[in-house]
Amino acid sequence: MKLISWNVNGIRSVFNKGFVEWFTMESPDILCLQETKAQIEQFPASLLTNEPYQVIHSSAEKKGYSGVATFSRKNILDTKKIEKHEYDSEGRVLVHELEDFFLLNCYFPNGQRDHNRVPFKLEFSDFVLEKMNELQKIKPVIITGDFNTAHNEIDIANPKSNQKSTGFLPIERAWMDKFTGQGWIDIFRHLHPEQAGAYTWWSQLNPSVRERNIGWRLDYFFISKDLLPRVKRAEILSDVKGSDHCPILLELE
Predict the structure, then answer these.
(1) What domain range is 91 assigned to?
(2) Residue 146 annotated in active site
(3) Statement: the pTM of the whole predicted model exceeds 0.70
(4) pLDDT at res. 167
(5) Which one of 2, 176, 187, 218 has the minimum C-beta count within 10 Å?
(6) Residue 243 three-state SS
(7) If you write DSSP's letter for every residue of 101-156 in order, what string do you get?
(8) pLDDT, tens only, 226-238
(9) Long-range contacts of 202-211 (CB under 8 A, 24+ apart)
């Protein structure tokens, strides 16, 4: 089973940058998108009739903002949102139940440059963690998406100069410590513990930043320990363009 996750920074934008050709070539069993920035009726029509995929979405009430969508050709038994209005109104989470695991497609809030939304981000993160711990009592869990936080110094090109930047604040990184401390496995880092320069986001303010690979690793697959024996590979698809993020991949037996 091949799962891919990608913050597309606008489904309509990425659609015009080779998305369909890429999607067809990769042909994942499940594709999780974040920051779709569209209501479902605004999605390109060909994506909604792309057999054999079913499309499940959660859009923000605010137009052109946030939003997650999942394309799946695997049988999804049930889907719920996170079931808290302040998060669902921003289209931040889809909770899918498959035969042998739960899958969360998740877009964590950005703390903002003035750190105004950091408390909201941390409250959201705790709520998601609580939900995951509940679900894990039933069957294993995978969570994927844009966490908007680089966990450790190896996950960011310039750790020293970003100590006071949201996405690398000590309080945000401490939450990631708490998350992994409760047994959730960052599967890319588990398989590639020493790999530096492995980033998934590059600022668009300076086009040369991506060319020089001055980035952050903000996008993750975390899994329950029970799924570890099934993992074949976890990769960052950094050559794929079209967004300020690149896709990430998890393949299971």
Answers:
(1) 2-252
(2) yes
(3) yes
(4) 98
(5) 2
(6) coil
(7) -EEEEEEPPP--TTSTTHHHHHHHHHHHHHHHHHHTTTS-EEEEEE-S---SGGGB
(8) 999 999 999 999 9
(9) 202/244, 203/244, 204/244
Q: Alpha carbon of 133 to those of 63, 92, 94, 136, 193: distances in Å? A: 32, 18, 16, 5, 25
Domain count, the chain: 1
CA nearest to 1, candidates 223, 185, 172:
223
Instruction: Give residues with Cβ within 8 angstroms of 79, minimum separation 6.
Output: 56, 70, 94, 95, 96, 97
Beta strands in the chain (DSSP E): 2-7, 30-34, 54-58, 68-72, 78-80, 93-97, 102-107, 141-146, 185-186, 219-223, 231-236, 248-252
pLDDT tens digits, one per residue of 168-218: 999 999 999 999 999 999 999 999 999 999 999 999 999 899 999 999 999
Q: pLDDT at position 207, please? A: 84
Burial class (CB in 10 A: 0-12, 13-18, 19+), 29: middle
Q: What is the CA radius of gyration of the chain?
A: 17
Q: Per residue in 220-238, is it b (16+ CB within 10 Å) or e — as a string?
A: bbbbbeebeeebeebebeb
Q: Which two tokens stand for residue 106?
A: 């998740």
CA 220 to CA 107: how far, in whole Å?
11
Q: What is the CATH number of the domain that holds 154?
A: 3.60.10.10
In this structure, what DSSP letter does residue 216 have?
A: B
Q: In the structure encoding, which two tokens stand for residue 116, read together?
A: 């105004």
